[in-house]
Amino acid sequence: MSDNEITFEGVRITSPDKVLYPEQGITKRELAAYYQAVSPWMLPHLADRPMTLVRCPTGRQKKCFYQRHAGSGVPQQLREVTIAGFEEPYLYLRDIGGLIALVQMGVLEVHPWNARVDRPDRPDRIVFDLDPGEGMGFPDVVEAAHEVRDALGALGLHSFAKTTGAKGVHVVVAIERRAEWKETKAFAKAIGDRLAAARPERYLTRVSKAERKGRIYIDYLRNDPTSTAVAPYSTRARAGAPVALPVSWEELVPTLDPGSFTVRSVPEVLTRRADDPWAELPSIRQRLPARVDA
Q1: Which of 47, 137, 165, 192 could form an SS bridge with 242, CB 3.0 to 4.6 Å?
Q2: In the prediction, which pLDDT does 121 show?
């Protein structure tokens, strides 16, 4: 092995001192250590799911690109799955070796499907992506997340929250693998439309950015194989090395600073927590209600 590579969790990491986040000087080596630290919390929500990757091989400020399908030069720790309707196979991982292999590829964002590789046609999660328009701050998004939670709770659905490493919040619902993608997307749209109809000055579900000023976009389109949401504990290809972090509903308050969750801070945050706010999510069994307006 040359001086310009290391082995980390059994994965060959070349150029370990290459800087991926120039503002903080965060290297491939440090990013690998981050994923090693968060892997017990992250893998239950990422393993065995097809992934869309954001790769930035020369760092977040340089050219980054999306990769949806497997290609040449993929580390052996990653696996491939062929999915009906897609010509090329998708990548997925099963363990910490796969997670570290993403670092070797220069991946700075991981976006998993809401379904697992054994039943890619049956989602087991629904995501509501709350995106603030111009003039809206994080406290507004927090209020919106709690309203989405209440709307879901009125239908008997338990939901979970995470910051996104950007300006928004994701509200996530675990469901049994009974519905198809079109059904879960229709359900998410129906919830969003219901909130937008009740408070049109506050919410919208239309994609048009021109209409978002002073309102929060409830993005239901994340419930699709080709429009995925960032994984919990994933880094983002953004200044500050932010991380998407699951939070409890008690933590999700207007004074919370999502920018404080970074590659360097999150491992310590996890060691201080008494409980994992998403611990129950993988084991919850819920069915979609027959009607949203019930």
Answers
A1: 165
A2: 97
